[in-house]
Task: structure prediction
Amino acid sequence: MTVVKQEPGPEYAGDRGDPSGADDGYVPSRRRLDRERYRRDRALRATAVAALSTLVTAVVLYLVVVNAPGWPRTKETFFSAEYAREALPKVLEGLWLNVRLLLVCGVAVLVLGMLIAVARTLRGPVFFPLRALAAAYTDFFRGLPLIINLMIVVLGVPALRLQGVTVDPVLLGGTALTLTYSAYVAEVFRAGIESVHPSQRAAARSLGLTNRQALRHVVLPQAVRRQVPPLLNDLVSLQKDTGLVSIGGAIDAVRAADIIVGRSLNYTPYIVAGLVFVALTIPMTRFTDWVTARMDRQRAQGGTT
Result:
């Protein structure tokens, strides 16, 4: 059988260009120009359809809300421009406390969660008590509602009148948040550690590394990279739940709004506080989506995740 080798035609050469890279007068083929034009038209059509459908949905929702029988009273009670202007500076002042809680508790949650996850994955019968304590910790605080945990810590600890123990509601509220969220984050870290194939640890041991060195230099770096998106999601949830520390009397954004509501009996400050939290959460959410998409692209290209 005779095999005839076909030479690439002029059109194929136009698609590839000059392999030497020295052809400054490169002219794309007609097929390539048509393909790029089709992609641009398709992207424009998709954008136009998305914008039109969004506009129609927004108009329909607006008409449904403003035509509701109780809309005038609801507008006066929840969307008063006068009370919004009064509440915004105080809510922003209280928001600084929420931001500080997020930063401090976020670091504490990551460190404590990692320690608990490592304790739960230790091997050998000698570590059984440590594994049992770590499992009991995660089971208890994942099952206990956060609001009850906050009440126990913020209201119960000062009632004990222990010497040297703080009664600051901010510190106690941050402690309760750390206890609850570290249990969730520990399970995220544990899932990442167990997702690393055992051959990775075995290969590290065959190179002469100890168990601790294999965990530190081989297992944990891979586990943390794989769990970045769920960890960021937990931090987004933590950012919102920092508003719960107000039940102990700490004046954060929610408590600042609550004070104005208690005096005016108008709920607009709550709307202002909610919008401020949403504005603070959206950048973190978009960053989480970006990290997730980037890791998906790296995984699709065969990169390390």
About this structure: Residues 1-21 have pLDDT under 50 and may be disordered. The chain has twelve helices and no strands. Residues 81-120 form the longest helix (40 residues). The two ends are 48 Å apart (CA to CA).
